[in-house]
Amino acid sequence: MKIDDKIIVSGQNYQIIRLLGHGKGGYSYLARDDQKEVVVKIIHHEPCDYYAFGNKIEAEERDYYRLLNAGITIPEMYLIDKEKEIIVKQYIEGDTIFEMIRNKVPVDPYLEQVRLMARKASEAGLNIDYFPTNFVVHKRILYYIDYECNEYMPQWNFENWGSRYWSYTEEFSNYLSEHNL
After folding, report:
1. Is residue 53, in this structure, part of any structural domain at all?
2. What is the pTM (predicted TM-score) of this model?
């Protein structure tokens, strides 16, 4: 997709504004309908060396409801087109935790919120993807903008894995170098 491309999802027209990101499961674009900005996520089937997928679009829908039921602060899902493998969800405007860390903006005010999310996730038997690109701050509220979640395993919880990327650590610095950021 390119800027100004149009896409139809479940009969609704959206104009692509820009690419927001590319993850393990799909490409997310900032788009606009007649009334508001949204995120249009188009599922891809590119290989991923470190993660095994089943049916991605069904996993996105299932995980959305698992996160809602766990009380995790996430963007609302507006539409899901299972045939085209496209999701339209609420756009949460703000900086990602990743951008804040990269720009050396303190994220300490959001550690309590991510730890609360981690506790809620673990109580629901889940882990979320704690990598800082998956979190946006809007009006001082932290949102988990991905819908990915997995069965809880302590090695992938916030304290054992995610926290290693929530400050300008060696792991964070290495990630920047490896990805030329």
Report:
1. yes
2. 0.92
